[in-house]
Amino acid sequence: MSRRVAEFDWARTPLGPSAQWPQNLRSALSLCLGSRFPILLFWGSEFRMLYNDAYVPFLGQAKHPEALGSPADICWREIWGRIGPMLEGVTRSGEATWSDDEQFFFERALPREEVYVTFTYGPIFSEDERRVDGIFVPCTETTEKIVSARRLDTLRQLGARSGETRELDDACRRIAAALSENRFDVSFAALYRAEAEPGGEGEPRFSLLASMGLEAAALEPSAWPLASVQASGQPLVLELPEEGAVLPGGAWPEPSTLARVVPLRWSGDGRVDGAVVLGVSPRRPLDAAYLSFQELVAGNIETAIANALAYQQERRRAEALIELDRGKTAFFSNISHEFRTPLTLLLGPLEEACANPQVPEGVRAQLGIAHGNSRRLLRLVNALLDFAQIEAGRLRASFRPTDLAALTRDIASPFRSMIERAGLRLAVVCEALGEPVHVDAELWEKVLSNLLSNAFKFTLQGAIEVRLRREGRHAVCEVADTGIGVAADALPRLFERFYRVAGNAGRSMEGTGIGLALARELVGLHGGTIEAASEVGRGTTFTIRLPFGTAHLPAESLAAEPARPARPLVEEALPWLPSGGGAAAPGRAEPGGDRRFASTFGARIVVADDNADMRDYLLALLGGAYRVEAVDDGLRALAAAHREPPDLVLTDVMMPNLDGFALREALRAEAATREVPVIMLSARAGEQARIEAIDAGVDDYLVKPFSARELLARIGAVLERDAELRERRAVQERLRRRTAQIETLLDVAPIGVLLIDADGRFVEVNPAARRALGLRRDLLGRDFREVTRLIWRRAYADEIIGIFQRTLETGERFFTPERVETRLDTGRTEFYEWQVDRIGLPDGRHGLVCYFRDVSAQVQARQRMQHADRQKDEFLAMLAHELRNPLAPVRHCVELLAASPDDARVPGRVTPILMRQTGILGRLVEDLLEVSRITRGLVTLRREPVRLDSIVEQAVEAARPLFEARGHALTVHGDPALTVLGDPTRLVQCVLNLLNNAAKYTEPGGAIRIESVRREARAVIGVTDNGRGIPAELLPHVFNLFVQGERTPDRREGGLGIGLSIVAELVARHGGSVAADSAGPGLGARFEIALPLHAAEPGAVSGDAPVPALDDANALDDAPHAPHSRRVLVVDDNQDAANALAALLETDGHQVTVAYSAPEALALAESLRPDAVLLDIGLPGMDGHEVARRMRASPRLRRAQLIAVTGYGQASDRENSMSAGFDAHLVKPVAVPLLQRMLRQAGARR
Predict the structure, then answer these.
(1) Residues in domain PAS (predicted)?
(2) Among 441, 480, 990, 1182, which residue is least crowded by beta carbons within 10 Å?
(3) Which domains does the chain carry?
(4) 997: which residues sit within 8 A by CB, 6+ positions away?
(5) What pLDDT digit, counting tens, does each position of 746-765 carry?
(6) Which secondary-structure segment (H or E) carries 1092?
(7) pTM of the model as a whole
(8) Chain segment 777-818, per-residue pLDDT in tens
């Protein structure tokens, strides 16, 4: 590079000729070119590049040597977006920067090659150190380090995930999962297995084992050259299509362009067993390191699959051995069943015959021999089964702490009479061991019985000794005899199965050679050892050593119940005596059943056994006392049970179609037979077989062969116990139902119920009580006093505790219908009705039951009703006051007119007063009616676009006389651009009410301001005054019905407190809202109405409120009209009202006739033919609507104007009037100018 730099024409660059380069550039370049470390220089504002030989690999063949002297943004255009800001930052700040293992994507071997670089940007300052002339960049490529670490982690994951798998499918899934975690180096993967064609001919087939990152179409084996790779045994690199069905690029957005198929050999014989397809990263070149990584991936895959296949093969071998063992166990079980069933049929009848005194003595002796040999055969069968269970690991011992000395003496004692009859002596010396030994009593008995039987068999004279002593942490038991002894060469084989010492002259040559072998196995189960020492002609000694404690025993066998011992060996050894003495004759069963269980006689028993002889035997044995039905398999037994449920089922275990265990499950599945007891007969002996039967739900278990007496006793006991259980279940069911009923009553009870015992603890708390107490923790068992003090304050809690304690001591009931309680935990005040009673408890002591219910809602409702009643009284008092105020001057004026009929001045003085006060009365009544209409939803809004300034202007004009009378200074500011959608009349009414309210509560001479402004998407009308203000406690309620400020003696304007309520209701119906604000008493108040703005079309906005309807009782027409005489009929049942109205109309020049009833009105109308009829609606007998309909039906009255004059002013009243034929509907009191105008129209109509 030194030569290239020297030969480069720098004059064509901004750096200029090298001879003119500054010293700092010369020094930096000298350091760069002389270094063996990759160094790059950026110089000047364009960051022109100079570099040494070690930096060339960074550029690659595509950029070197053209990169020399070129601007950095051109040479490194693919990464300029990242390094450009870094370079400019160093140039501006003069501070160095560095990066470790920074990832870049170079345009080098690939369009976007993944590269990692560690570098430093060091500034090179000018000679005056005021600026940065260049940047010195030492750098190192760390790509290999980063990528190798990533690939190594993938290999480690492959080994960790697939190394412990035992299934091929699982191994393949784990392989795919491990590869999927490195999509940077494995874009995709597919694992295939070669399947050889039958006969080994033809091209092999491949099956997919696992895949990662590929679509289904790309997973077909035909998509890859698998056969070629298998044939050659070499990897194959594939160039993938760049168009069409592109394959994924893994972690990168661009597709992969290369894939590699690697052969796999996992069988160990060198042949190709499969292949893996590995996608190559589109951003890393497929170099030697990449190829090595793929080979290592393939090697890990081979190891994982080989391990999984080896494990599967080993497992198949183990399963085959297990299956063989199962077959052997099944064989022994079947043999057991086949032997035990005929043995049962032999021993049962033989026992009965030997016990029968009617059988001749000689015959009984022969039967005794048969009975003894049958018992011997049973002993051989049991020994074989014990060996089978030990080999299968199914022999389960029950180890319990046992006094081994006492047990050993008990086992040896039955042998004494037999040994002494043979002329021998039995010595039993058992020392106290000081602590119990954990043994299975039944198995220990088998060990000792075998040893004693063996000693008796080979001892012809002398003695047999049983010795037990303690040696350290072992119990030592010895069985010694003075018999014929065993040769030294035979001793090592003495405990082998089926081994018999040749030539020994014992009492008998009988034997199978398994007794001592069985003894050794059983001692081994106890964690002990057995040894033999013998000398020919001197005798033999067997020594057993059993450890103390339980550490040597399986924990699961320490809690089992001990087995019941059986002692068949003494009876088997008795025939070896010279006299041939047999066993004592067995006892005989009671004919027909065991009389101890006579209460069970007559019960129905279903017998299931596939052996016909066994069925006949059981029928004969049980038929005398019970109703017996015998069937030959489980299915027929189930059908018999369904047909008539039995009291007991006696079943064999092994039967065709449905065995005994399946029969028990089938009986359990049906409600009618679920509780039927089952006794199971089985050839399987031992504790484990019995436990399995009990676990299956069997009530009793008998091992064949069994005695008739035992069977009858078992059947009677089970039936008697079942009868007791049924009675107990019936009682429990009655108790359960009663308990459930009580619990249901408590659960759904709307009152709380607490049951407290004599110690003051909660015994029962029903859901209503839990909800009322509100405690999350379970109350049962908690102290009542503690809980009480958690809920209520100390003094009140102590009072409640005292009440409960007095009731518990005296038995006196406590009841309170209403008690106020303030909760300590919630702060709420609650009202409860509660009662406490003393009750007796099952333990003989007394407890308390408390019934209570929350009456807070009722109390609060009563309080609200009382408050409403007070409000009603206050309203009525206020209404009376407001009505009396105008009535007083009216009465005074009337009295003045009556007292001065001739005084011409009086009418002029009283007429304004009467007009004013009757107007006040009319407004009071109209306000009450308006509230009623609004609250009942009877107000209909006639919405139209209207300008808000027009609403304000009309309201101000209507209120101006009141302001002028009180001397208020009124300021008006209206925004003409505000338009809302509403009923103009109602909006004027709302604003007018606010203005009247301001005037009412502002002292004379005060200031009132009304304005309309825009506030976001709403138009706001505000009325502000400097009057009395509003107290803070009243402010939230000012828009409620009947709420008023404080009345003062100088506030002459009355009111019912309903004006603001009307405003709130009407504004809400317009979609708006109201608000009130005041700084306090004496500081004035501000009321606001906010309405949604409306975007109206030009010219569509109404500027004025609509003209009141002609029949509106409040519409005034003050224009003077010349009187025109009309014939008028006034109809009203109120004579004063009729006469007054008639007198008023007569003063106006009309001819008036009065009628006080409907019939009179109809008659007068026909004769008078009036121009107008003023007709009251509420007439007695026949209302005004019916009178109007009849008048309209008369030809003489069709053109008469019918005017309803009534106190009913609802919209429905007006509609009813119009439908009845009225021309107008006027509400009392009638406005005289409006009535005059209507009468003029009546004349024109005529």
Answers:
(1) 738-778
(2) 1182
(3) 2-141 (3.30.450.20), 152-320 (3.30.450.40), 396-576 (3.30.565.10), 595-731 (3.40.50.2300), 750-854 (3.30.450.20), 941-1092 (3.30.565.10), 1127-1245 (3.40.50.2300)
(4) 1023, 1059, 1060, 1087
(5) 777 778 888 899 888 988 88
(6) strand 1085-1092
(7) 0.39
(8) 677 888 888 888 888 888 888 988 999 999 999 989 999 888
